[in-house]
Each structure stands twice: as C-alpha cells, then as structure tokens.
Amino acid sequence: HLKQKAFIEERCPQVYCKAGTKSGKTTAMIIFCIEFAIELDAKNIHGANIWWIAPTYPVSQIAMNRLWAFIPPQYKPFFKLNKYQRYIEFPKGIKIWFKSGDKPDRLFGEDVYAVVIDEASRVSEDVLEASISVLTATNGLLRCIGNSKGERNWFFFACKEAQEHEQRCLQMGVKPQKKYLEMHTLDNPKIDKKTVELAKSTLSEKRFKELYFNEILQEGDRAYDDELIKRCITTEMSNMPAVAFGVDIGKVTDYTVVLGLDINGNLAYFDRFKGRHLSNQTIAKRILKGLETEHLLLAYVDGTGIYNMIAESVQKKIGSRKCKVVYIGGNNYRITNGRFIRQHELERLAMAMELGYIRF
How far is CA 160 from CA 110, 153, 156, 219, 340, in A? Predict the structure, then answer.
C-alpha cells in the first residue's frame, strides 16, 4: 500500500515509523533491504553488510525466512542462505544479517550500510546506540519500526523528536536528516475489518487503540475511566467464598483495604480500617482474618516502604506459594520472585472490567 511504498523508497538517513499490528511493516522492511542491497550492488559496493535487528533471535529468524521466500525460485541458486550464522548473501557478497538485540554490547565493531531495528519499542536504547555506531563510517541508513508501547521507551521519544526535526527543517527549507512515518492496521488492504472489530471487542479500548492505531496509552494515566468503574459496581456482595485477595496497606493517613473476589470475580470479602494507632502485629492480624481461609488460592499484599514488615509477616503466616508481596513504585510493580508487572497488567484489569469479569 501507499504508506509501505513511502517507507521503502525513503532514503533519509534516519526514519522512525510507528506501525499498527499487521500493517505490513515487516513486508515493507524486507523489500527495503532487498532494494537497498541491489542499490549497493549497482554502486559496486561489494561485500557490504545490512543488519536486521529484532528483540530475539526467533523473531529475527521469522524475517530471515520471509525474506528468503521473497526471492523467486529461479534466482535462489545465485543467493546463499546460512541458517547457522543467520544471513542471506547476495551474488556479489552483500549480506543481510539477522541479529538479536538482547545483548547490545555484541553489536559494536562492524561497518554496516543499513540497519533495520524491528519491534523497536521492545528493544533497549543500547541497540539504537550500537546501530548508530556501526553506521558511522558508511553514512548508512537507519530504519526503526515498531508498535506503540507506551511513552516510557526510547522509541516513543525518537519518533517524537524525528517528527519535530522534520517540521523544523521544512520550515527552514532544508533537507531533514530524520523523518517520521506512521502506518495503521487498516492501511493494509489485506486486513479484514471484521477481524479488527473482533479484536476491538476482545482487548481493552485503550490497548486496542494503541496496538492498532498508534494512539499512545500514557503510563501516567489509568487504563480505565470512571465510567468503566461504575459499570462494575454491584449493590450486593457474593455469598460464595473469596478465593483471590488484594491487600492495600495504609498505616499513617490512608486506610488499609482488604478485598476478596469469588471464583466468578464478584466481591465476596471487604474490610477497610485505619491503622494509624495500631501496631504492625494488630494490622497483620486483621488482614489475616480475611486471608486465612481454606478457599484461598492467591493473595497480593502491598509491601511498599514502611509496610514491608507487615506484608512479609502476613506472607510468612500464609506461605509464599499463596501470598505474594508486591512492591509498588510509580507505574512499576515488582513481585518478590523478580517478575515485573507494568502497564500491561493495568490493561488486563481494564479488559476484565470491560468484559464484566469483575464486580465490586
């Protein structure tokens, strides 16, 4: 489609493209790599390197297999596919390498004529730095493309900076060195609108807009609004036993709240109290009043800051298998086993609320 064509033909040194899922970004990048390799061959730049960097090797291998499939069968004898070292070699020695961005320090050192960073929002900024480094000697081309994934990653800021740079250059009448492009899912004529509508009914509204139309879900915002909360409110508590609990501890000025949901996601247990004049042991004992049930499957307890001792005493009593302590800082949640929970957990909550899986 037209936006793919614009991406393929652009020869600005750096191009950043936010692309909706299945918008045709991988196909566009594959054609770009093939056409640029042909251009290098026409300039008698033999033995040149082009890099394709993805978050992991399996993801980059998908691109390698698809690029190999692009080559017509009658021309394949003139090309070489090396699955072990992960490259495709063109007739005059030009190679397209398929690399992983999980260890950026291993990307330095080579001279490269073009770098494509696939799924750019899912790799570290160190990959960008390494890419710029290996392109320096050749004045090579950088292409970064990926889905929108919040506003707290380098790709978001790089897209924004490229867009502003391009606008400034246009106002000044000079040729920009960076450009910003955008593709939405429905820009791809092969995508069935009914499939997109099905995705819309399955995902949370904000996550759908972010994934399909590049509308950023700001991490400082809630993944749900007041209207969605109102839709989940019920006037009656469940008579079934609570099996899943969440505990938010507040000792100084806030309330401590213990919520329990039944197997159907309905509110089955609720306790709310101020602990300002209560000892840690008393607060822990009151929390355990709800959690110490034979029906308990899992409980998450806030262990941030001064509440750590209370949370850990509750966990010790219940057992770490059923009780997890959560440390909350800004928009990042960390479980004691090292697992990180970020914005997508809020999106999952919003999705459950929109689908009516949670009632309180």
Answer: 29, 11, 6, 16, 27
